[in-house]
Each structure stands twice: as structure tokens, then as C-alpha cells.
Design brief:
two-stranded antiparallel ribbon, 14 helices, alpha+beta
Length: 477
């Protein structure tokens, strides 16, 4: 019996014919389209159809992914979610309803503040330090080496072996992954009460992402959720991100990997990330004994990542490796930022992301985590004790497709947005000024936002989230 052509087979044919994320993106990032959208439309219009059952790379039978609706990088014409009727939809009415948002931060962006907060924190966070994935790991030795360091090297050797072996992982030159996810802002804790998101079950946003990688240090991710989109990438020299409310802006500091690749998608980069880590002990997680590796960003990297009123004080990464399987089961990082307001007390933001990796399956001999969840805690403190807040965000994801060594994937797939390329044509100083221009405008708007009293219709949860999004624009996650 002849097997019908599956989604991945069609993808590979399209890539060979020249389809790539770089070529399908528009030169204007704000109007860029998903690199998968054209392909999904082709498949839907074909004789096979996307409704056919196909065999993905993981070997399990799953229904084909649904075609995503067109993305909007601003408010919907019909007004707020769930709202009907008249009142004059579109940009005009949205601006009237949100008159307190000023400057570039109000020019575009998701309608709901909690969605904007989730996209800003979970959309495309980066790893703490720069890594070179193709460099060999330190030689395993106990002579003249602290026991914490030699133990960490031994754990990483076991991790690489459990993930498929170094030989097969070094044969990977590029990779592709596609997945689905859900995000939710659940509650806010203040010194005197806990504000719950009363419609949390209805406010969970669903979406998906596509990730492309190529050695060395090149990646591109596009994440769409709740009618809005965040995309980010690295060409090996420049890391950038585009959000609907800040536009395209370059990341400060050295080139760093995307944190999402460390969540069970790239064992080689993960091992390189922890190459300078120390083993600090053991811990039982969900009934499984784990070794704990700790990595701290060096002071030079923290200083390079700081800008303007925002100073990165520390960024620490913890990896929990199963003693039974050798695989990474939990990834935790803590990121502390100090923001100095003009004429006021400093405000501190501590962002903690705990990612739990599950459902490991072999893909072409490499163990990949096919599902997981992340729990984010945003802790704001400083000023007076009564101003302290703790916010909880959640994300759950599943991996639908993974493949390695995609034919036709080229350097053109990882070209930065046009305005950042023009900025890169000048000297380093001009790169910083031009590449971060929109980010600086957004930070200025954010500073004005949280110094002013914000009035916004809705409950206390909505008002608290709205105030928080103004401040989070200053933080380089």
C-alpha cells in the first residue's frame, strides 16, 4: 500500500526548491509572515490535504497541524476579546480606550496586557552566556581539578552519552523544530492579598512556534500566540528580537543561544552551556534523584548586557540531570535586574523560570524532549515593602516535528531585519545607537508609564498586569 506524502516530506521538497525562513520573510519585520504559512497553504490545497494522518519524525501517529489564522500585530478590528457590536473598532477606538499608553509603546502591540507580558518574558529569552557548540568539552580529569568541576564534567559526559553520543551530535549541521504551546498569567501576590486571574481558564492563549538552527551560533524562531507574533534570531554576530510594541531591536552583550533550544531540543549546545558549571549537590524532583549543575554569568557579560537605567546584577542557570537516565529533567534560571528611576528609589526585578522537560524520544538517534512546561515568577521589590509584588506566568508546550540536516537551509535564512543591517554597516557605536533605538524609545515610554498613575478599565488583576508591562520593557531578558 502506498504511503501518502506527509507534512515533513512536503516541507523537505519545499526547502530544496528554495523555501527558507529568510527568503519567506519580508524585509520589513513588522510585516513579516511565518515561514511555514505558505507551505501550510500549499499542503491544504493539495490532493493529500492536511487532514490526512501522517507519520512525523518522532514515529508516532498524530493528526497534521491546523493552519494558523492570519496574525495581527495590533488590536483587532472588533475591539476587545469577546466583545461584539459597534462603537467604532480598529486603531482609533483602541487608542481611545488605552489613552494612558503613550509613545512608541502604544503604537502597536497586543490588546491585553497579560498577553504582552507573557510574550515579553517567554517569547524569546536568551541563555546567560555565549557558547561555542562545536568546541570540545573539557577533558575529564580529577588531577588539580576541584571536585565540583570534575563532577560536573563527568555528569555532562553521561548526559551526552544518554542523549545519543557525541559522534552523532557532531554530525548535525542544522536543525528544525515545530511545536504548539499555551501561555497563562495566573495570579499576582501583593503584601496584603493575592489577586487571582478569575478567568484564567478562558485566558490561556494557544499558539505555536517554528525554530531553525545552523552552526555556528545561528538560529531563528517565530512564535505566534493570541493573534500576535514575536520573532527573534541570530546570524552568529548579532542577536535581535522583534515585538509588536517595540519593533526590531538588537540584544545587548555577546551572542547567546535561545533558551528554548536548551529545553531538550539541542543536547550539544546544552552540554557546552554547562561546560564551566559546578556540581553543587543533589535533589529529588518528582521522585527522581538528580545532580545539580550551577552556572553563573561572568561580570563582563553582565556589564555588556546592562543599558541605561537597567543594570543586570546576576544571571544564574541551574541544570538538574537525572541520576537514572542521565538526561536533563529541569532547567532553572534566575535573573536579577536593578532599575534606577530618576529621582526615586531603585526597583529590583527577579525573574525565575523553571522548565520541566518530559517525554524524551529518539529522533535520528538523538534524544529530544517532546513536551514540557515552564513556570515563571516575576518578583518586584525595592522602594517600600507595600510595593512588592510577585506574578506567576505559566507555559506548556509540545513538540510536533523535529529534523536535522535540512537540505537547502542557508545563511540567508538568518539575516537580521533591514534596519539592524543598516545599523551594522557603521561602527560599533552606531550599531548600539541604531540597533537599540526602538528599545530605548520603549524604555522611555515604560519609565513614564510606571511613574504616572495608569487608569485602565477592568479588575485589579488587569490593572496590576498593565502596570507591570510598562516596567518589564526596561528589562533585557
Amino acid at each position: 500500500m502506498e504511503r501518502k506524502q506527509g507534512f515533513f516530506a512536503t516541507l523537505k521538497e519545499e526547502v530544496v526548491r528554495g523555501l527558507s525562513p529568510g527568503k519567506t520573510r519580508s524585509r520589513t519585520p513588522a510585516r513579516s509572515r511565518s515561514p511555514m504559512s505558505g507551505l501550510l497553504r500549499r499542503i491544504k490545497g493539495s490532493d493529500n490535504g492536511v487532514s490526512d494522518v501522517f507519520v512525523p519524525r518522532s514515529g508516532s501517529l498524530r493528526p497534521a497541524p491546523e493552519t494558523l489564522s492570519p496574525l495581527r500585530e495590533g488590536p483587532e478590528e472588533g475591539g476587545e476579546r469577546g466583545g461584539g457590536g459597534g462603537g467604532g473598532g480598529g486603531w482609533g477606538s483602541w487608542m481611545r480606550r488605552n489613552g494612558s499608553v503613550s509613545g512608541a509603546a502604544a503604537s502597536a502591540g497586543p490588546q491585553r496586557s497579560d498577553l504582552r507580558l507573557m510574550l515579553g518574558v517567554l517569547g524569546a529569552p536568551l541563555a546567560p552566556v555565549h557558547v561555542v557548540a562545536n568546541e570540545p568539552l573539557p577533558h575529564l580529569s580529577v588531577k588539580d581539578t576541584p571536585i565540583e568541576t570534575s563532577s560536573a564534567h563527568y555528569i555532562l559526559q553521561q548526559y551526552l552519552a544518554a542523549s545519543g553520543g557525541l559522534k552523532i551530535q557532531n554530525s548535525v549541521h542544522n536543525a528544525y523544530a515545530m511545536g504548539k504551546l499555551k501561555m497563562l498569567a495566573s495570579d499576582i501576590e501583593t503584601p496584603d492579598k493575592v489577586i487571582k486571574n478569575r478567568s484564567s481558564s478562558k485566558c490561556a492563549e494557544s499558539g505555536g512556534f517554528v525554530l531553525w538552527q545552523m552552526n555556528p551560533d545561528m538560529w531563528y524562531v517565530e512564535l505566534a500566540i493570541g493573534g500576535s507574533k514575536v520573532h527573534a534570531g541570530s546570524n552568529g554576530k548579532l542577536v535581535w528580537r522583534h515585538t509588536p510594541w517595540l519593533g526590531a531591536h538588537a540584544a545587548k552583550g555577546p551572542v547567546r543561544p535561545l533558551r528554548r533550544t536548551l529545553q531538550g531540543l539541542d543536547p550539544r549546545t546544552t552540554a557546552s552551556m554547562f561546560a564551566n558549571a559546578r556540581c553543587i549537590g543533589e535533589k529529588t524532583i518528582n521522585g527522581e534523584d538528580c545532580f545539580i549543575l550551577k552556572l553563573c554569568a561572568d561580570p563582563q557579560t553582565l556589564k555588556a548586557r546592562s543599558e541605561g537605567p537597567a543594570e543586570i546584577i546576576r544571571h544564574v542557570l541551574f541544570g538538574y540531570f537525572s541520576q537514572k537516565t542521565g538526561l536533563l529533567v529541569v532547567l532553572e534560571d534566575s535573573h536579577l535586574t536593578r532599575i534606577q528611576t530618576s529621582g526615586g528609589d531603585a526597583v529590583y526585578w527577579e525573574t525565575t523560570i523553571n522548565s520541566y522537560l518530559e517525554d524524551y524520544k529518539p529522533i535520528e538517534g538523538i534524544m529530544i524532549a517532546h513536551s514540557g512546561r515552564s513556570v515563571v515568577t516575576l518578583f518586584r521589590f525595592g522602594e517600600t515593602a507595600m510595593s512588592h509584588t510577585r506574578t506567576r506566568l505559566e507555559e506548556a508546550w509540545t513538540i510536533e516535528e523535529v529534523a536535522f540536516n535540512i537540505p537547502g537551509l542557508s545563511l540567508d535564512c538568518f539575516i537580521p531585519p533591514a534596519e539592524l543591517r543598516l545599523a551594522a554597516a557603521g561602527d560599533d557605536h552606531e550599531v548600539s545607537r541604531s540597533g537599540m533605538g526602538r528599545s530605548a524609545v520603549g524604555a522611555a515610554a515604560a519609565s513614564a508609564g510606571y511613574r504616572a498613575k495608569v487608569t485602565r478599565p477592568g479588575g485589579s488583576f488587569d490593572r496590576s498586569i498593565h502596570n507591570m508591562t510598562r516596567q518589564m520593557d526596561d528589562i533585557n531578558i
